[in-house]
Amino acid sequence: PVNLDYFRTFQIPLLRGRAFEERDSADSPAVVVVNDTLARAFFPRGALGQQVGIPSQCNGSNCEPTWSTIIGVVADVKVFTLNQTALPQIYLPHSQYPYPGASVAIRTAGDPEKAVRDAAAVIRSLDPQMPIYDVKTMEDRISDSMGGTRFEAFIVGFFAASALFLAAIGIFGVVAHSTAQRTQEIGIRMALGADAARVVRSVVWQGLRPVFAGTAIGLAGAIWMSRVLTSALFHVAPTDPTSFALAAALLAAVAFVACLVPARRASRIDPAEALRE
């Protein structure tokens, strides 16, 4: 059950029909508002004016439903976590379905802590014995709901960063070693008239070609395996192009440095010494 200002407070858009009004009292016909998921699933031809049974009077295991008319359809909202799929929801007017407990939501443009103190003062003025608990801002509640997902993302990110770091070290070591082994070849080329810049470009390009091929294969494998991470992502696609581009660019930069450093070192050796060796 919700009150008249619920949808306005939480800024839930009204898609069709109307929201609850003062006329929806305990003496008027029973009405409900449903979300878009429920409307599409159970009333594909239109939910407005249709009736749903709300269990109200129960005798043991038998419950007599109160047939309520759907007067509005609102947009879907996430109830528990931000990465969950939308669930069918029915909103009941508090005037027709009173509930002994209540949660108060306050929307304010100022300091939320001050709004909480003011609201608590009003509640205590009405009933000094009324307990006030579980007071949090919406940002805090969203953060709490994403705690498990955030921890999973941290673990996955940590191991991903470690794998990327180890891959960068491996690429640097292999490429630098293979380039250093070509020191005599580079010296001979320079003794035969090749200039240093051309030699460096040739060595760097030859070193980067297998890196580019390996990166392409790795990206294909990463895209294929990305479906595993779908449940741990929010507002980020499993095949986020920025993430893939940054990882590929980092590996290419490491490989470039790994080729460039030994190539420049080899290009400065004395061609006569290379020929003697």
What does the average pLDDT come to? 83
Q: What is the helix/strand order?
A: HEEHEEEHHHHHHH
Helix content: 40-55%
Beta-strand residue percentage = 5-15%
Query: How many E strands?
Result: 5
Number of H- or I-type helical stretches: 9
Q: From the alpha carbons, calculate the radius of gyration and give it in angstroms.
A: 33 Å
Largest sheet composition = 5 strands, mixed
Stretches with pLDDT under 50, minimum 5 residues = none
User: What structural class should be given to the helix and strand makeup?
Assistant: alpha+beta
User: Which overall shape is indicated by the principal axes computed on the Cα atoms?
Assistant: elongated
Distance N to C terminus: 88 Å
List keywords for this structure.
single chain; 277 residues; alpha+beta; 5-stranded mixed β-sheet; 51% helix; 12% strand
Summarize, please.
The chain is 51% helix and 12% strand.
Q: How would you sum up this structure, described in words?
A:
This protein has 277 residues and is an alpha+beta fold. It has 9 helices and 5 strands, in the order αββαβββααααααα. Strands 1, 2, 3, 4 and 5 form a 5-stranded mixed β-sheet that branches. A hairpin with a 2-residue loop joins β3 and β4. The chain is elongated and about 105 Å long.
Topology, element by element:
Elements: H1 6-9, E1 14-17, E2 31-35, H2 36-42, E3 51-59, E4 62-74, E5 90-91, H3 112-126, H4 138-145, H5 147-180, H6 183-191, H7 196-225, H8 241-267, H9 271-276
